[in-house]
Amino acid sequence: MHIRNLKFVLLVLCFFGFDLILIAENSAGGHDPNWKVPASAAAKRNPLAKDPAAAKAGKLAFDRTCSACHGAKGDAGLAGASNLRSPAVQAQSDGALEWKITNGNFNKGMPSFNSIPEHQRWEIVRYIRTLKDSK
Ligand code: HEC
To answer: What's the mean pLDDT in 30-57?
Structure first.
């Protein structure tokens, strides 16, 4: 009986501890590791990958639509917004970022931007890439 109780306590601690780690990760950069992108979307290539004007156009849209939460440099993290310059974000594919922008994660505060034309979302992704190394 004692051993059973101990197992129960350990089980509860396990779950509770795991929650704490998730909360800590979320508050660190707003990045939600459980927000999964379908493989087919993540594999999509950016059709504007070779368009030199795309990032510049993306910056205009970003400043207008995204900077209120993500900040002008992408790292403000207002209202729990992810730091878009962080390795956790930059390691994701263009297709994954475009999918997240399109669908949002409403419960965590990221709106869905499927109203933005698709080519503009790819432009914004190009711009997010330039944030990686900028100061
Ligand atoms: C109302 C505030 C708000 C606005 C406006 C907003 N975001 Fe977000 N965004 C968030 C929040 C909050 C998260 C974190 C969601 C989460 O934890 O899952 C997020 C997450 C993201 C992510 C996922 C990053 C990751 O951690 O994987 C991307 C990409 C992103 N936003 C891009 C954009 C772009 C591009 C725009 C403009 C078109 C935009 N966001 C506008 C609040 C916002």
So the answer is: 95
Q: Which atom of ligand 1 is nearest to the CA of 125?
A: 35
Of the candidates 119, 99, 117, which has an alpha carbon nearest to the alpha carbon of residue 54? 119
Q: What percent of the chain has pLDDT over 90?
A: 70
Predicted confidence (pLDDT) per residue in 96-130, tens digit: 999 999 999 999 999 999 999 999 999 999 999 99
- List all residues whose CB is within 6 A of at least one atom of ligand 1: 30-32, 35, 65-66, 68-70, 79-82, 88-89, 97, 100-101, 105, 108-111, 113, 124
- Which residue owns the Cα nearest ligand 1 atom 26? 31
Q: How far is CA 34 from CA 40, 103, 108, 126, 128, in A?
A: 17, 15, 11, 24, 21
